[in-house]
Amino acid sequence: MGYRIAVLRGDGIGPEVTAEAQKVLEAVAGRFQHGLHFEEAPVGGAALDTMGTPMADETLTLCQGSDAILLGAVGGPKWDDARTDLRPEQALFRLRKELNLFANIRPVMSYPMLVDKSPLRPEIVTGADIIFVRELTGGLYFGQPKKRWETPQGRRAVDSEEYSEHEIARVVRVACELARNRRRMVVSVDKFNALISSRLWRQVATEVAEEYPDVDLSHMLADTFSMQLIMNPTRFDVVVTTNMFGDIFTDEAAVLAGSMGLLPSASLSGLPTGRTLGLYEPIHGSAPDIAGEGIANPLAAILSAALLLRYSLDLEFEAQAIEVAVTSVLEDGYRTSDIYSEGTKRVTTQEMGDLIVAKIRAAKG
Ligand code: IPM
Ligand code: MG
């Protein structure tokens, strides 16, 4: 008995931060007596180099047969050629689509001891605590037609913002379910005044919200939201939006936390209740410029491991053990370079992982 976890470390800092997340999961398994079985496979550029494809069929099969997938990051300058469509990122798209990971959950919060790391004023970011739910398998990323062709007037290309009622409803349900354990507020972000697909989005979101009378759903235009997010972030609880908007807003939201190195994510194939197959990865990329130096912040990967326990294994207590350990290590003053400030203790990627492991071993429960 036990749980099967596929580990896809990927490129750049992916391998080093994933190693720390796995170490922390092993500590949780030891502390709370769970059987976790890890199986590794190459992904992204690493897979392109060794297998000729960023996401091999056998890796997909491994993921499908697992309870959860832990991923590092993919991509790097080595594989950046605008002329070819064979890119490391395709691995992500294939995983998202073929595993039906339609709901991308990205929690963003401001840690009290790190407010000075945000470029925004402390009185603005203090208390910010938002969960983004980004639609992940539709919209501009996948809508048809999607192509590029030659015309007598020159080259043309098209991507399509396309959504079905079903795709909208299921991701809004995820947002409403999450809101039930929080402040029960959902803001749905669209571009209703300009896009037909957004009008459908808003209509379906409103209908779905009727299933959740205890949750307050409101709508906001994407341009207004982009401004409100940095002017008044504490007014938001759960935010649900399309694939493209979600990609943009979650990077913008990272400034609230002060570093990309702190932000985890979960991509789920169902509601966040019970046990759902999911993929867990830090939202930062592969950061090739600092790869291998031991200075990357592993906390985003470690916090992604907490989400893995919560949503795919239904181990809420264990998930919280990780989150409490992270807060506690930050309270003790330990910082990786990205969040270092004078008077705190600078540690390496591995040392940060060790500190979290030590906290978990000492946890009660
Ligand atoms: C993300 C990333 C990806 C996306 C890239 C790497 C294709 O930015 O997960 O947010 O756009 O979805
Ligand atoms: Mg992105």
What do these coordinates show?
- The longest helix is centred in the first third of the chain and has 19 residues, at 14-32.
- Helix content is 40%, strand content 21%.
- Strands 2-1-3-12-11-4-5-10-8-9 form a ten-stranded mixed beta sheet, sandwiched between helices. Strands 6-7 form a two-stranded antiparallel ribbon. It has a two-stranded parallel sheet with strand order 13-14.
- The chain has twelve helices and 14 strands.
- The chain is globular.
- With 365 residues, it is α/β, with parallel strands linked by helices.
- The protein folds into two domains: 1-100 and 277-365, Isopropylmalate Dehydrogenase; 119-257, Isopropylmalate Dehydrogenase (3-Layer(aba) Sandwich), CATH 3.40.718.
- The structure holds 3-isopropylmalic acid and magnesium ion.
